[in-house]
């Protein structure tokens, strides 16, 4: 298995485990010795990530995350996902960029866009 394929598997397991309700396990299994966060609304470190996921799941217990695409190049893995906070809501389109070092997630960037109710084209966000 290539490093890129291995990194994709790591990120998919990490992301699904965390947002599936077990961020502590996701961090224990997949975070490196440090975690750098580039979202200006989030702090660095595993405790901040766990707190964010716990808060989000407490506020939206029926949230779902559907990962649509995964791309890897070098030490980066990019996911394109659909996050729905409540059933029936349009949700948000997420582009997450993860940097891995020695098989562990060590850095994260994201771009978040609300899924609009109407669109100027028939293509959809996903």
Automatic annotation (TrEMBL):
Record-linked InterPro entries: Cyclase_SnoaL-like (IPR009959), NTF2-like_dom_sf (IPR032710), SnoaL-like (IPR037401)
GO BP annotations, alphabetical order: polyketide metabolic process
Domain SnoaL-like: start-end pairs: 12-108
Protein name as it appears in the record: Putative SnoaL-like aldol condensation-catalyzing enzyme
SUPFAM superfamilies xref list: NTF2-like (SSF54427)
């Amino acid at each position: 298995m290539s490093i890129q394929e291995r990194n994709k598997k790591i990120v998919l397991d990490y992301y699904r485990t965390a947002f599936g309700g077990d961020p502590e396990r996701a961090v224990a299994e997949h975070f490196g010795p440090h975690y750098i966060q580039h979202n200006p609304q989030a702090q660095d470190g595993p405790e901040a990530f766990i707190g964010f996921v716990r808060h989000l799941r407490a506020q939206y217990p029926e949230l779902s995350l559907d990962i649509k695409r995964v791309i890897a190049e070098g030490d980066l893995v990019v996911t394109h996902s659909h996050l729905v906070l409540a059933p029936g809501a349009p949700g948000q389109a997420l582009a997450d960029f993860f940097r891995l070092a020695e098989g562990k997630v060590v850095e994260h960037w994201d771009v978040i866009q609300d899924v609009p109710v109407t669109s100027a084209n028939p293509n959809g966000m996903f």
